[in-house]
Structures are given as structure tokens and as C-alpha cells.
Amino acid sequence: MADKPTVYVTRRIPDAGIERLEEDYDVHVWEEKTPPSKEHIIETLADLEAEGLLCLLSDDIDGEVMDASPNLEVISTFSVGYDHIDMDAAAERDIPVGHTPGVLSETTADFAWSLLMTTARRTVEGQDYVLDGEWETWGPTLLTGPDVHHATLGVIGMGNIGTEVARRAAGFDMDVLYSDVEPNEDAEAELAEAGVDAQFVDQDELLAESDFVSLHVPLMDATHHLISESEFKQMKEEAILINTSRGPVVDPDALYTALEKDWITRAGLDVTEPEPLPADHELTDHVPEKLVVTPHIASASIQTRNKMARMAADNLAAGLAGNSLPNSAHQD
Ligand SMILES: NC(=O)C1=CN([C@@H]2O[C@H](COP(=O)(O)OP(=O)(O)OC[C@H]3O[C@@H](n4cnc5c(N)ncnc54)[C@H](O)[C@@H]3O)[C@@H](O)[C@H]2O)C=CC1
Ligand SMILES: O=CC(=O)O
């Protein structure tokens, strides 16, 4: 019997994915908590002469990595974002790249809403207040924040996740604005059925009019530091920025200044630049009064991570069988 194809998995993903791979492949998993270095990925792919690579968003996958194994046939990432993969290098080498769209959209949208509610209604500050022993009585103006209901939500990037974020605004009777590279009529129709009248506007208008601005664009050249000093200055002083997209979509120095100078009221970040954010990074000076930060966990529900693992394994299996990937990242 021919040897099974070899697959390198750069971190232990949920069993749903590993078990699927183990049915057909010789599976090697990096078992540490932190990612393997790029050098280690290269050495391992070369030693294994691996046919498949299943990677995470914390791995830097460029042409050098792709050339490490003479047999590499497919790359599958356990994420929807693929900004960590050099897509031009993959296209040049005819290596298909799989990712995990759709299965995490609702879970990620739920989390964006959790950051929105937490920053607006000052949940973290409230808990600190209790734990610090400061809670002596009910206070008429204690930890007041803006209403979420009937406010204006601005969604930048009305794709899968942006649509789910907008859909959830129905329960809060919010006005919804969105900007994108072009109007998304399918999303508008879907949202209208859910009772949300999403208005396409240019980004300048969205920034000027929104009480909450939530970012849902992929990271690429056009979206690098999409929100920087001039954008913060366009926003309302009462505005709250939520970022669950990628850290570098927001210029961290500009965010620091915007919070310092009260150009905006607060921000909630699940993604940061740099990532991980060191605990002594200057941005943490603003925690918790003006900033809430979480460690890139927006898709981290048990069910969704299982679905992502299965989808990433299915993409890899399709590529190794010489079939087109069920969820292929666009090579553009
Ligand atoms: N924090 C987390 O754990 C998670 C983060 N993400 C991030 O969210 C991103 C979006 O995911 P999906 O909604 O599934 O992607 P998607 O591809 O469905 O939607 C992205 C939307 O952004 C739009 N867009 C692209 N360039 C733009 C620009 N310059 N200005 C305005 N809009 C622009 C696209 O036209 C599209 O409508 C991912 O690429 C990933 O980086 C995704 C899942 C979880
Ligand atoms: O950030 C998470 C992803 O799936 O992309």
C-alpha cells in the first residue's frame, strides 16, 4: 500500500479536524501553545516533505515556506482571514489556499456586539468598581454611558460578518449605515427582511454620522490603517469604535491619541497592532475607562471552532485529492 500523504498542522485544532485528517493522512501537529517560528515551519515541511499544510492566522506563510517541501500541494488556514498568506506566491506555485468563510460569521458578529455593549455600558469598569471595594451605594450618575437602542450603527465592510452585525441591530431599533467598495444589494435585501434598513453611504458620511463604528474589512493594502488620525477626527466625540477585523486596519498611534484627546469616547478591540498586544503597551493606559481589549477571540465559540476545524480539514483533503477546494481563498 502506498504511503499516506503527510500533513503538517501548525497547532492543535479541535478534534473534529484532526480526526478527519487522521482518517487518510500521516498527521504531524505542533503541540506547543505558541506558534512555531517560520524557520521551524520550513524545517518541518522540508523534513516531512509534506503534501499538505494546515496553518493558523499567526503563521507567516510566504514563498520561502511554500518552497520548503518539494511536494506541497495545498495550504489550508484555520481562519477566514488569509492576510498572513502570500497569495501571489501561492498563485505563482499553483498551490490552492483554503479558508473558513461563513461558519464563523454569526459567532464573530455576536462578539462584536459583546464589545459594543461592554464599551457603551461600561461593564468592565463596573466589575472593577465592585472588586475594588468601591461599591457603597446605588449612584444616580454612576458609570453612565450612551444608549445603544435607537443609536446609529456604522458597519465598514458589509460582507458575511458585517451583515450579521447589522442584522443584530434590529433588536435595538438602530439606524444602520454601511460603507464598502460597492453597495451590497443582496445584504440590503436580506437585512430588509430582518427589519433593518441598511443605507449605503461613503465612509466619510458613515464616520460623521455613526454613534458606533464597527470594522469588518479584510486586511490588505487598501485597508491598512483605514482608520487613522483623519478618520478619528471625522468621528463624533461620543462615538465608540469596535474592531474585530484585523489589528492593522486601525493605526494604533492614532487610536491612542484619539482616546487621549477625546476625539472619540471609547474603543473595543479584539484585534490589535501589534498582536499579541504586550500588557505594557501604551494603549493599555486607556484600559478600562476608554478601552476594552480581548485576545482575538471573536470566533471562539465551541461550536464554531469545531466547524472551522472540519472545514479546514475538508479543504486540505480536497486539495490532496486533486479536487477544487470547497472554500477557496481568492487569489487576488
Ligand atoms: N476577530 C476575529 O476573531 C475574526 C476576524 N475576522 C476578520 O474579519 C474579516 C471579514 O470577514 P468576512 O466578513 O467573513 O469577510 P467578507 O469577505 O465576507 O467581507 C469583507 C467585506 O469587506 C469589504 N471591503 C473590502 N475592502 C474594503 C474597503 N477598502 N472598504 C470597505 N469595505 C471593504 C468587502 O467588499 C466585503 O464586503 C476577515 O477578513 C478577518 O480578517 C474574521 C473572523 C473572526
Ligand atoms: O480572525 C479570525 C479569522 O478567522 O480570520
UniProtKB/TrEMBL annotation:
<dbReference type="GO" id="GO:0005829">
    <property type="term" value="C:cytosol"/>
</dbReference>
<feature type="domain" description="D-isomer specific 2-hydroxyacid dehydrogenase NAD-binding">
    <location>
        <begin position="114"/>
        <end position="298"/>
    </location>
</feature>
<dbReference type="InterPro" id="IPR029753">
    <property type="entry name" value="D-isomer_DH_CS"/>
</dbReference>
<dbReference type="GO" id="GO:0016618">
    <property type="term" value="F:hydroxypyruvate reductase [NAD(P)H] activity"/>
</dbReference>
<protein>
    <submittedName>
        <fullName>D-glycerate dehydrogenase</fullName>
        <ecNumber>1.1.1.26</ecNumber>
    </submittedName>
</protein>
<feature type="domain" description="D-isomer specific 2-hydroxyacid dehydrogenase catalytic">
    <location>
        <begin position="7"/>
        <end position="328"/>
    </location>
</feature>
<dbReference type="InterPro" id="IPR036291">
    <property type="entry name" value="NAD(P)-bd_dom_sf"/>
</dbReference>
<dbReference type="GO" id="GO:0051287">
    <property type="term" value="F:NAD binding"/>
</dbReference>
<dbReference type="Pfam" id="PF02826">
    <property type="entry name" value="2-Hacid_dh_C"/>
</dbReference>
<dbReference type="InterPro" id="IPR006139">
    <property type="entry name" value="D-isomer_2_OHA_DH_cat_dom"/>
</dbReference>
<dbReference type="InterPro" id="IPR006140">
    <property type="entry name" value="D-isomer_DH_NAD-bd"/>
</dbReference>
<dbReference type="GO" id="GO:0030267">
    <property type="term" value="F:glyoxylate reductase (NADPH) activity"/>
</dbReference>
<dbReference type="Pfam" id="PF00389">
    <property type="entry name" value="2-Hacid_dh"/>
</dbReference>
<keyword id="KW-0560">Oxidoreductase</keyword>
<comment type="similarity">
    <text>Belongs to the D-isomer specific 2-hydroxyacid dehydrogenase family.</text>
</comment>
<dbReference type="InterPro" id="IPR050223">
    <property type="entry name" value="D-isomer_2-hydroxyacid_DH"/>
</dbReference>
<dbReference type="GO" id="GO:0047964">
    <property type="term" value="F:glyoxylate reductase (NADH) activity"/>
</dbReference>
